[in-house]
Amino acid sequence: MNYEADDRIRRKVAEGRHRQVIGGMWEQMGRLQLDFLVAEGLQPDHRLIDIGCGSLRAGVPLTGYLQPGRYFGVDSHQSLLDAGWTREIKGAGLADKLPRANLAATAEFDLSGFGVQFDYGIAQSVFTHLPAGRLTDCLSACAPWFRPGGRLYVTYFERPATAAPNDPLPHQPGGVVTHPDRDPFDVTQAALLAKIPEGWRLEIVGPWDHPRDQRMARLVRL
Prior knowledge:
- There is one protein chain.
- Helices cover 26% and strands 23% of the residues.
- The protein is of the alpha/beta class.
- The strands form two sheets. Strands 1, 2, 3, 4, 5, 8, 9 and 10 form an eight-stranded mixed sheet that branches. The chain has a two-stranded antiparallel ribbon with strand order 6-7.
- A hairpin with an 8-residue loop joins strand 9 and strand 10.
- Helix 2 packs across helix 3.
- It is globular and about 50 Å long.
- 42% of the residues are buried.
């Protein structure tokens, strides 16, 4: 799926396929993200931003776990946000815990409209679809809105340093084939480190039981 193809995504959402358009595995991936973040220290009173939240696959379990008003999400597709809140959050009886104003459409990682600072954030399967330079843009835009010590978790497909630099790279489990120059993107750890702007510290978490072999990086706000 081309995540920049807004018209195509709107059509699929209108067909009731808002879960499939973000990759399916709805229950599995939602629970995986919640369990991972709790293991990393997420508490119910923390504020969390879900970057590339889509139709709220992680948003539903995270809203259920966090105190009211503590989950926030941004995505570049308004139609996914609308479907997530109307069909999933309301359907789960969580509308009182997630104000609609806590969800915003932005393609530039703009968190300023929320007017809060975040303790935690996650960008799951976002930078696997974008060139690595967009991570720099994201961290620069998000920096003012993370408290010192705040953590943003980012998934990526790892290209081993020993791999040929331009060859397609298969991943197991999942069978995804990635590339350094097109979607789905991969990146070496050295190249990932080079994209981290001042004010953040990169810590490699590595495997975290992702069913398609995406790895996890922890970015700590300095």
